[in-house]
Amino acid sequence: MSEKAPAICVLRLSALGDCINAFGLIGGLKRTYPQLDLLWVLDQRFASLFCDEHDHDLVPMIKLDFKQGTLHAKRSLKQALAERDQPFDALLNMQTSIKASVCSLAIKANKKYGYDAQRSREGQRFVINETVPSPENPHVLAGFMAFAETCGYPIAEPVWDFQLDPYVLDKAKCIVGHEKVFALCPCSANESKNWTLEGYVELCLYAHSQGMCVVLLGGNKANEINLCNAIAEQCHSKSQRHGATPFELINLCGKTNLRELAAFLSIAKIVVAPDSGSMHLASALGTPVIGLFARHDEQRVGPWNFMDLNVSVYHKLAQNELKGKPIPWRYRVRTADAMSHISPDQVISAFDRALERYRI
């Protein structure tokens, strides 16, 4: 009789960028330890990115709906797990939130791993029985990988495989109709992380001067659509005023689902984005991405594969606010106009560096 495969449940509900990083961890586990029985519990709002075009899960998932509250989601999770006759060998509770802690109570596991005192919060310590030491690397994904190592399944690197359908990629290429695509994803879920309209416009004009077609990408929220519309209008206006060649810009904000967003980011030569899910998605797809940071530490939440391209004023602002005291791992800069401290010259310099380094 064959030995039962070790069963591991990964609990990471949100947000989109963190789910993308969790998907990389799970991919690394799948590749390194194909015998593992893996299950991922996440918020259903983000799950479609991790399903193929036929709605098949890329990894086994339980998708929770929180519209009726956390307790309802916990009950649905308990029902979904009711048929499992054995507890998981390990639960990797990689989210320090009340939602995650409550949901973890519905998961039976011999060992429940959570963050150590440095990173734990919101009562997570009461629902775990094993702690994961914080790694030297401050990045959130390095912290995820520490979970795998602590439970006995270390991985050398994360692995992302979104299995994008060639048809979807071809469709994206046909819509753009240009070989050199610069994708700008100007919006974060938190508006205070967005760069300035003027900065985005200047960057788009510069990308156009380098022979690139600008594609604007974003969600369907009014503030995202309004910002992308303003960028497009000002780019066309300034381009016409200076008698430049017709400005190649395609505004797709609010017109893509998550899988289509992935397709456009995949065909882009370079991406610029503030701290956002789109930034992490571009990185996971292997597309050079310049992350813009002022509110949060780029060393903690930057794009894993392209940390060398980040433009950040975070440490300068944080040190000013803390008056020289050590910066806590989760510290958020409070300066109201923090992102305006990033200059267009800084971003254009990173853009040139990416063009040269990746031979774009």
Automatic annotation (TrEMBL):
- A GO BP entry: lipopolysaccharide core region biosynthetic process
Q: Which domain of life is it from?
A: Bacteria
This chain's protein is named: Glycosyltransferase family 9 protein
According to the UniProt entry, its GO molecular function terms are: ADP-heptose-lipopolysaccharide heptosyltransferase activity
Q: Which residues form a coiled coil?
A: none
The upper taxonomy is: Bacteria, Pseudomonadati, Pseudomonadota, Gammaproteobacteria, Aeromonadales
Keyword Cell wall biogenesis/degradation in record: no
State the CDD domains in the record.
GT9_LPS_heptosyltransferase
Which keywords does this chain's UniProt record carry?
Answer: Glycosyltransferase, Transferase
InterPro entries reported in the protein's UniProt record: Glyco_trans_9 (IPR002201), LPS_LOS_Heptosyltrfase (IPR051199)
Can you list the GO cellular component terms from the UniProt entry?
Answer: cytosol
